[in-house]
Protein backbone atom coordinates (compact mmCIF):
# COMPACT_ATOMS: atom_id res chain seq x y z
CA UNK A 1 0.00 0.00 0.00
CA UNK A 2 2.94 2.31 0.54
CA UNK A 3 3.42 1.80 -3.19
CA UNK A 4 0.14 3.62 -3.64
CA UNK A 5 1.44 6.57 -1.65
CA UNK A 6 4.59 6.59 -3.74
CA UNK A 7 3.06 6.41 -7.19
CA UNK A 8 -0.24 8.21 -6.83
CA UNK A 9 0.99 10.84 -4.39
CA UNK A 10 4.53 11.65 -5.46
CA UNK A 11 3.89 11.05 -9.15
CA UNK A 12 1.07 13.59 -9.15
CA UNK A 13 3.35 16.09 -7.40
CA UNK A 14 6.08 15.37 -9.95
CA UNK A 15 3.72 15.78 -12.86
CA UNK A 16 2.45 19.03 -11.38
CA UNK A 17 5.97 20.37 -11.05
CA UNK A 18 6.84 19.42 -14.59
CA UNK A 19 3.62 21.05 -15.73
CA UNK A 20 4.72 24.29 -14.08
CA UNK A 21 8.01 24.02 -15.91
CA UNK A 22 6.05 23.29 -19.06
CA UNK A 23 4.11 26.54 -18.73
CA UNK A 24 7.33 28.54 -19.04
CA UNK A 25 8.02 30.62 -22.13
CA UNK A 26 8.59 28.19 -25.01
CA UNK A 27 10.59 30.88 -26.82
CA UNK A 28 13.34 30.81 -24.23
CA UNK A 29 16.65 29.96 -25.95
CA UNK A 30 17.84 26.39 -25.52
CA UNK A 31 21.04 26.66 -23.52
CA UNK A 32 21.75 23.03 -22.67
CA UNK A 33 20.47 19.45 -23.02
CA UNK A 34 18.18 19.88 -20.02
CA UNK A 35 16.20 22.67 -21.69
CA UNK A 36 16.11 20.66 -24.92
CA UNK A 37 14.68 17.68 -23.08
CA UNK A 38 12.10 19.77 -21.25
CA UNK A 39 10.96 21.18 -24.57
CA UNK A 40 10.45 17.60 -25.75
CA UNK A 41 8.36 16.80 -22.67
CA UNK A 42 6.20 19.89 -23.19
CA UNK A 43 5.00 18.57 -26.55
CA UNK A 44 1.64 16.81 -26.65
CA UNK A 45 1.75 13.24 -27.92
CA UNK A 46 -1.38 11.51 -29.21
CA UNK A 47 -2.02 8.51 -26.91
CA UNK A 48 -1.63 5.15 -28.61
CA UNK A 49 -5.22 4.13 -27.91
CA UNK A 50 -6.31 6.77 -30.43
CA UNK A 51 -3.90 5.76 -33.20
CA UNK A 52 -4.73 3.56 -36.19
CA UNK A 53 -2.92 0.47 -37.50
CA UNK A 54 -0.91 2.47 -40.04
CA UNK A 55 0.94 4.25 -37.23
CA UNK A 56 2.06 1.00 -35.61
CA UNK A 57 3.04 -0.44 -38.97
CA UNK A 58 5.17 2.65 -39.60
CA UNK A 59 7.02 2.46 -36.27
CA UNK A 60 7.31 -1.33 -36.37
CA UNK A 61 5.46 -1.92 -33.09
CA UNK A 62 2.47 -4.16 -32.39
CA UNK A 63 1.88 -3.69 -28.65
CA UNK A 64 0.17 -0.48 -27.61
CA UNK A 65 -1.08 1.19 -24.45
CA UNK A 66 -4.84 0.68 -24.44
CA UNK A 67 -5.91 1.35 -20.85
CA UNK A 68 -4.74 2.13 -17.33
CA UNK A 69 -2.89 -0.79 -15.75
CA UNK A 70 -0.80 -1.62 -12.71
CA UNK A 71 1.27 -4.52 -11.43
CA UNK A 72 3.42 -5.40 -8.47
CA UNK A 73 6.93 -5.69 -9.92
CA UNK A 74 8.90 -6.95 -6.93
CA UNK A 75 9.43 -6.63 -3.21
CA UNK A 76 8.57 -8.96 -0.36
CA UNK A 77 6.69 -6.91 2.23
CA UNK A 78 4.05 -4.68 0.61
CA UNK A 79 1.86 -4.61 -2.47
CA UNK A 80 -1.48 -3.80 -4.04
CA UNK A 81 -4.30 -6.15 -4.97
CA UNK A 82 -6.41 -3.36 -6.47
CA UNK A 83 -5.70 0.08 -7.89
CA UNK A 84 -8.33 2.05 -9.78
CA UNK A 85 -7.83 5.53 -11.22
CA UNK A 86 -10.77 7.39 -12.77
CA UNK A 87 -11.09 8.82 -15.36
CA UNK A 88 -9.08 6.79 -17.85
CA UNK A 89 -7.50 8.57 -19.60
CA UNK A 90 -6.76 11.33 -17.11
CA UNK A 91 -7.74 14.83 -18.19
CA UNK A 92 -5.83 17.67 -16.59
CA UNK A 93 -6.89 20.05 -15.22
CA UNK A 94 -9.68 17.90 -13.82
CA UNK A 95 -10.99 15.62 -11.09
CA UNK A 96 -9.18 12.40 -10.19
CA UNK A 97 -10.59 9.52 -8.13
CA UNK A 98 -8.30 6.81 -6.74
CA UNK A 99 -9.27 3.60 -4.93
CA UNK A 100 -6.86 0.93 -3.70
CA UNK A 101 -6.57 -2.27 -1.67
CA UNK A 102 -3.21 -3.49 -0.42
CA UNK A 103 -1.12 -4.86 2.41
CA UNK A 104 2.00 -4.26 4.50
CA UNK A 105 3.60 -7.38 5.98
CA UNK A 106 6.12 -5.61 8.23
CA UNK A 107 6.01 -2.18 9.88
CA UNK A 108 7.85 0.55 7.96
CA UNK A 109 9.55 3.61 9.41
CA UNK A 110 12.19 6.23 8.66
CA UNK A 111 14.52 6.12 6.80
CA UNK A 112 12.48 4.67 3.93
CA UNK A 113 14.48 4.70 0.71
CA UNK A 114 12.42 5.28 -2.44
CA UNK A 115 13.09 5.44 -6.15
CA UNK A 116 10.75 6.68 -8.85
CA UNK A 117 11.16 6.13 -12.60
CA UNK A 118 8.96 8.06 -15.04
CA UNK A 119 8.90 7.35 -18.78
CA UNK A 120 6.91 8.98 -21.57
CA UNK A 121 6.16 7.06 -24.76
CA UNK A 122 7.18 8.57 -28.10
CA UNK A 123 7.13 6.73 -31.43
CA UNK A 124 6.63 3.45 -29.61
CA UNK A 125 9.64 3.94 -27.31
CA UNK A 126 9.59 4.65 -23.58
CA UNK A 127 11.77 7.74 -23.00
CA UNK A 128 13.02 8.25 -19.44
CA UNK A 129 12.28 11.59 -17.78
CA UNK A 130 15.50 12.49 -15.92
CA UNK A 131 15.77 13.76 -12.36
CA UNK A 132 15.81 17.57 -12.57
CA UNK A 133 15.74 19.52 -9.33
CA UNK A 134 14.42 16.53 -7.34
CA UNK A 135 11.61 15.99 -9.86
CA UNK A 136 11.39 13.20 -12.41
CA UNK A 137 13.14 9.84 -12.19
CA UNK A 138 14.78 10.39 -8.80
CA UNK A 139 16.06 8.55 -5.74
CA UNK A 140 15.03 9.66 -2.26
CA UNK A 141 17.08 8.87 0.85
CA UNK A 142 14.04 9.06 3.11
CA UNK A 143 10.57 9.16 1.63
CA UNK A 144 9.15 9.72 5.13
CA UNK A 145 10.57 13.25 5.07
CA UNK A 146 8.72 13.97 1.83
CA UNK A 147 5.47 12.70 3.34
CA UNK A 148 5.99 15.00 6.33
CA UNK A 149 5.88 17.97 3.93
CA UNK A 150 2.66 16.82 2.24
CA UNK A 151 -0.60 18.75 2.73
CA UNK A 152 -3.53 17.44 4.78
CA UNK A 153 -4.02 13.67 4.66
CA UNK A 154 -7.13 12.67 2.64
CA UNK A 155 -9.91 11.41 4.90
CA UNK A 156 -10.22 7.96 3.20
CA UNK A 157 -6.56 7.28 4.02
CA UNK A 158 -7.09 8.34 7.65
CA UNK A 159 -10.21 6.19 7.93
CA UNK A 160 -8.39 3.14 6.56
CA UNK A 161 -5.93 3.29 9.45
CA UNK A 162 -2.93 3.67 7.16
CA UNK A 163 -2.31 7.38 7.59
CA UNK A 164 0.00 9.58 5.56
CA UNK A 165 3.15 9.76 7.68
CA UNK A 166 5.66 7.23 8.94
CA UNK A 167 5.60 4.85 10.69
CA UNK A 168 3.24 2.58 8.72
CA UNK A 169 1.80 -0.38 10.59
CA UNK A 170 1.59 -3.96 9.40
CA UNK A 171 -1.87 -4.80 8.09
CA UNK A 172 -4.35 -4.98 5.23
CA UNK A 173 -5.76 -1.70 3.97
CA UNK A 174 -8.70 -0.68 1.81
CA UNK A 175 -8.89 2.92 0.64
CA UNK A 176 -11.97 3.87 -1.41
CA UNK A 177 -12.61 7.07 -3.28
CA UNK A 178 -9.70 9.44 -2.78
CA UNK A 179 -11.01 12.50 -4.62
CA UNK A 180 -8.58 15.18 -5.73
CA UNK A 181 -8.43 17.94 -8.30
CA UNK A 182 -5.47 18.31 -10.61
CA UNK A 183 -5.39 22.05 -11.19
CA UNK A 184 -2.37 21.83 -13.49
CA UNK A 185 -2.16 21.06 -17.18
CA UNK A 186 0.27 18.48 -18.50
CA UNK A 187 1.29 17.31 -21.99
CA UNK A 188 -0.85 14.50 -23.33
CA UNK A 189 0.61 11.06 -23.89
CA UNK A 190 1.23 7.65 -22.36
CA UNK A 191 3.31 7.46 -19.16
CA UNK A 192 4.97 4.64 -17.25
CA UNK A 193 5.69 5.16 -13.53
CA UNK A 194 7.62 2.64 -11.45
CA UNK A 195 8.18 3.14 -7.73
CA UNK A 196 10.34 0.99 -5.43
CA UNK A 197 10.87 1.01 -1.66
CA UNK A 198 13.72 -0.29 0.51
CA UNK A 199 13.84 -0.39 4.31
CA UNK A 200 16.72 -1.59 6.49
CA UNK A 201 18.31 -3.33 3.52
CA UNK A 202 15.09 -5.10 2.54
CA UNK A 203 13.37 -4.81 -0.83
CA UNK A 204 9.92 -3.78 0.40
CA UNK A 205 7.81 -3.12 -2.70
CA UNK A 206 7.70 -2.27 -6.38
CA UNK A 207 4.70 -0.91 -8.22
CA UNK A 208 4.47 -0.18 -11.95
CA UNK A 209 1.65 1.98 -13.32
CA UNK A 210 0.86 2.80 -16.94
CA UNK A 211 -1.51 5.70 -17.44
CA UNK A 212 -2.63 8.05 -20.17
CA UNK A 213 -3.16 11.81 -20.10
CA UNK A 214 -5.46 13.11 -22.83
CA UNK A 215 -7.03 16.41 -23.76
Give structural notes:
- The chain is an alpha+beta fold.
- The chain has one domain (2-213): Ganglioside GM2 activator (Ganglioside M2 Activator Protein, Chain: A, Distorted Sandwich), CATH 2.70.220.
- The protein is 23% helix and 36% strand.
- It contains five helices and nine strands.
- The strands form two sheets. Strands 1, 4, 5, 6, 8 and 9 form a six-stranded antiparallel sheet that branches. Strands 2-3-7 form a three-stranded antiparallel sheet.
- Strand 8 and strand 9 (202-213) form a beta hairpin.
- Helix 1 (2-22) packs across helix 2 (33-42).
- The longest helix has 21 residues, at 2-22.
- The two termini are 30 Å apart.
- The model is unreliable at 1-31 (pLDDT under 50).
List the keywords.
36% strand; 9 strands; 215 residues; disordered N terminus; alpha+beta; 5 helices; Ganglioside M2 Activator Protein, Chain: A; single chain; 3-stranded antiparallel sheet; 6-stranded antiparallel sheet
> How far apart are the termini?
30 Å
* CATH level 4 superfamily: Ganglioside GM2 activator
Strand content: 35-45%
What radius of gyration results from the CA coordinates? 18 Å
Based on the coordinates given, report the CATH architecture.
Distorted Sandwich
Give the oligomeric state.
single chain
Count of helical regions: 5
Average pLDDT, rounded to a whole number, is: 83
Overall 3D shape: globular
| Count of β-strands | 9
